[in-house]
Amino acid sequence: MALLSAVVPLWLSSPAAHAANADGRDDGHIRHDGLIRDEVTFRGGAGLPLHGTVVAPASPSPHKVRAPGIVLLGGSGPGPRTEYRQEADAFARSGIVTLVFDKRTVGYSTLHVDFGLLADDALAGVRLLRSRAGVDPSKVGLWGFSEGGWVAPLAAARSGDVAYVITLGGSGLNPLRTQTWNLTTHLRHRRITGSFPDAVAGPTAQLLHATGKFPEGDYDPSPVLARLRQPVLALWGVYDNQVPPAESARIFRETLGTAGNRHVTIRFLPGAAHNGHRTTDGFDRLGGPRYAGKRLGALASGSVDTMASWVRAVAAGKAPSSSASPAPREQVVSAPLPGGTGYEVAALALLSAGFAGYAVTGFRRPATRCRPARPLAALGLTTVVGTLLCTLSVYVAGEGVAAPVIAGRPLAWLLLQLCAVGVLALTAVTAASAWRHRDRYTRATRTRLLALVTTGALFLPWALHWGLLAP
């Protein structure tokens, strides 16, 4: 026991269980499959400590030539580095020193995203790689996947320290329009047709835009792309179903070309999904490890070779001239958000207040009560609130919440459509009853009934707009 008490603390403090230095340098090396892994800690935007791994080839480059470097920026969500281990290892095996790090958890959440702060983190990673022995500081670039496809160009536009930019599955549209395309595509894959996808991509997106609750929803990547002077490699999987690949490629090509960037390479990876991994249709993943209970898929054939050979050419001072491969056909074309976003907020407030107002004040004088009025108020409020929750839940939790599906409609949406018909029927019955028995009611009761019937009448155009009365 005495021997163990002396040895264990020494073992725990050995290089195999090291702690990174504050400046991002690291003395510990872990050799795995011919790679050297250094666990590092560095300070990102606003001084937040970030933890990552630098992966480098174990064999030194010939003639002691310093290697290029690359910083990996992940997609939306928590973004732990383990999700991108395949990419990090593949780049390192190709002779590129790679930094992959855990995304910040401070200043980033489902409801709050700051691309500027994420760009600061990216540039902090670039500074770390530029300071490491064996890395050529003039040849350190950024790789941005999905959300990182917005962040990497922003970081590169801010600093001349970034030598090149690679985007994978980057969108040329703003985040809200991209997400509506994504959800519409996935809903149609689940054979949900008709008015529900239109309600998600139309009125619900309008409401999110009007309230500003969709993080960075209005961020326009085009002005940032126009400021890039570094060589750019923009990649999309042929089966990308989360951002519109053809539309995005066109925006990248036209924006960068108009700005005078003559080193823009646009490619589409065959057999690849949004993340550049193997798939049959974009909705499945073939091979590879599991992450968060789901299979990531193995890297698509030739994807790493495409990126690594391009990086080596740029590092050698031979950045390829601009070129673009043919774009795949998109099943769904994205649509800009319609105008009049203030209407959605005003209409919801008016209908909710109209139905709820009668429900709150309509309990007096039961002998002279209009019998269909209270059911109308309750059903109307339930339909308005339920419609909002049904469509917003798709943005929050994904298209999976739309199950089960009956006759091309989510069951919840089908019930809401039936409720909408009931609201209109009760509005007509309430109006007829109130008129027939108008002499029985006090002036205050007639005023409440008039407000309720008017709300029911206004419900009709609102229900048509949201597609509750459409097939």
UniProtKB/TrEMBL annotation:
All residue ranges annotated as the Peptidase S9 prolyl oligopeptidase catalytic domain in the record: 119-278
For this entry, list what GO says about its biological process: proteolysis
Q: Which molecular-function annotations from GO does this UniProt entry contain? A: carboxylic ester hydrolase activity; serine-type peptidase activity
Print the keywords alphabetically.
Hydrolase, Membrane, Signal, Transmembrane, Transmembrane helix
By its UniProt entry, which InterPro entries does this protein fall under? AB_hydrolase_Est10 (IPR053145), AB_hydrolase_fold (IPR029058), Peptidase_S9_cat (IPR001375)
The record's listing under PANTHER family reads: ESTERASE ESTD
Q: What is this protein called?
A: Alpha/beta hydrolase
Organism of origin:
Streptomyces gilvosporeus
